[in-house]
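Researcher: Let's do a round of design. I'm pasting the structure tokens now; please hold your answer until I've finished.
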């Protein structure tokens, strides 16, 4: 039996070392909720990946706070769980709000792993002790700045590069990066900035030997992606459009993509991620682990999940220093020479929380029961 006695929410704001610009806007700070759950003398940690505004999806820090405090936390404190795999299904009564669900669900997975004294990666079914990673690079002020930034990350040892694209910053810049770095595994992410009649933009990138084109069309579209995929040799990868194993099934049946990006926040946590992973694996469809500029708490969860066998493409899980001057976990995540992050070997998420720094970046807290 897995019993949660107390849940504490921390709404935090941490400055990013560099502004992160995508087709939906610029982020300068990471505004999010860190979740602590307590049970049987142990504490588990999770992170809600929504940001301050509803730009990537409809969820925000404020909706996460509301859904957690008014609905999800009471469901957890009510009744013990058989195990962490049953948390997601108990939350099914709440429609949507996957990022709110995931922050709490993943904290409970950490708690369960700590109570069992084993690494989170192990109870999730991970098989790797290091996970291959790349770097996601935002829109830059100029092409020169972009080429310099790519070169800097390549020098640091990142062996897979993703660049953000948006109308006016797409095929030409991608071609320029490909010409400067002819061999580097390269992919692009549009964050839903295009429409079907922009097909020529993607045709112009189709001969650049890209690993994939991520979420070119609407954030909630699956059908039109199937029409675009037919026109391209390059695999389309869906991010924003996939919220469940049911969505993944529709996308693969329709031929809307050949690769899926799994972000546990977007799909409701580890259990839902594992279902999508297992479904894709059975069908021989590669998955990779996306990122949401997580602090070390979310990053530790991502590294553990990405250690499952089906995560065969490099993840958007860069080292702590790529995002933050100082991370809220000890030790921070660092890049290995082979462009991997090591999966922590301690119990649960395997990193400890730097509580002084956590408190320093906290805007408000809520403890249930008080
Ligand atoms: O679409 O993958 C995305 C960051 C915030 C919101 C959406 C996305 C991203 C990234 C960053 O690409 C990946 C990372 O955490 O390094
Ligand atoms: Mg994306």
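Researcher: That's everything. Go ahead.
Model: Designed sequence:
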């Amino acid at each position: 039996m897995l019993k949660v006695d107390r849940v504490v929410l921390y709404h935090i704001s941490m400055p990013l070392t560099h502004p992160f610009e995508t087709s939906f806007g610029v982020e300068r700070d990471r505004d999010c909720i860190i979740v602590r759950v307590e049970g049987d003398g142990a504490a588990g940690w999770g992170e809600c990946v929504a940001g301050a505004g509803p730009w990537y999806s409809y969820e925000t820090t404020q909706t996460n706070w509301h859904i957690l405090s008014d609905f999800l936390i009471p469901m957890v404190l009510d009744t013990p769980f058989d195990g962490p795999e049953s948390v997601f299904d108990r939350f099914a009564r709440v429609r949507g709000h996957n990022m709110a669900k995931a922050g709490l669900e993943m904290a409970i997975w950490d708690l369960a792993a700590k109570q069992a004294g084993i690494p989170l990666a192990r109870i999730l079914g991970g098989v790797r002790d290091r996970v291959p990673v790349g770097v996601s690079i935002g829109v830059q002020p100029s092409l020169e700045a972009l080429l310099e930034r790519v070169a800097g990350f390549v020098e640091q040892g990142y062996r897979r590069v993703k660049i953000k694209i948006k109308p006016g910053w797409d095929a030409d810049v991608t071609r320029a990066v490909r010409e400067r770095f002819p061999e580097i595994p390269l992919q692009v992410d549009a964050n839903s900035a295009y429409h079907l009649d922009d097909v020529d933009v993607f045709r112009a990138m189709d001969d650049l030997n890209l690993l994939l084109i991520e979420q070119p069309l609407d954030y909630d579209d699956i059908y039109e992606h199937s029409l675009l995929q037919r026109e391209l040799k390059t695999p389309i990868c869906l991010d924003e459009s996939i919220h469940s194993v049911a969505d993944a099934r529709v996308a693969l049946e329709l031929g809307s993509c050949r690769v899926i990006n799994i972000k546990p926040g977007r799909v409701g946590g580890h259990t839902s991620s594992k279902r999508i992973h297992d479904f894709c694996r059975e069908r021989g469809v590669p998955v990779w682990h996306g990122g949401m500029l997580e602090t070390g708490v979310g990053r530790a969860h991502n590294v553990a999940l990405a250690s499952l066998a089906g995560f065969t493409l490099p993840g958007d899980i860069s080292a702590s220093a790529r995002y933050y001057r100082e991370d809220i976990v000890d030790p921070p995540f660092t890049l290995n020479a082979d462009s991997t992050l090591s999966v922590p070997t301690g119990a649960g998420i395997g990193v400890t929380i730097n509580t002084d720094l956590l408190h320093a970046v906290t805007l408000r807290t809520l403890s249930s029961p008080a």
